[in-house]
Amino acid sequence: MKHPPEEEHTHLAIKVEHCEASVETRIEPGIYQPQYAWDLDDDAPFYRITTQLTFAGVATYPEGRAGEVYELTIYGSHSDSRRIKATVKDVQARDERGSLKFRSFRRRQIPIYNPPSGMGLIEKIRGELRWTAWLRVSPLFASDALALVSSGRSLFLAIHERRSKRARWIQGVSLQTTDPAEE
Question: pLDDT band at residue 64, thresholds of 50, 70 and 90?
Answer without folding.
Answer: very high
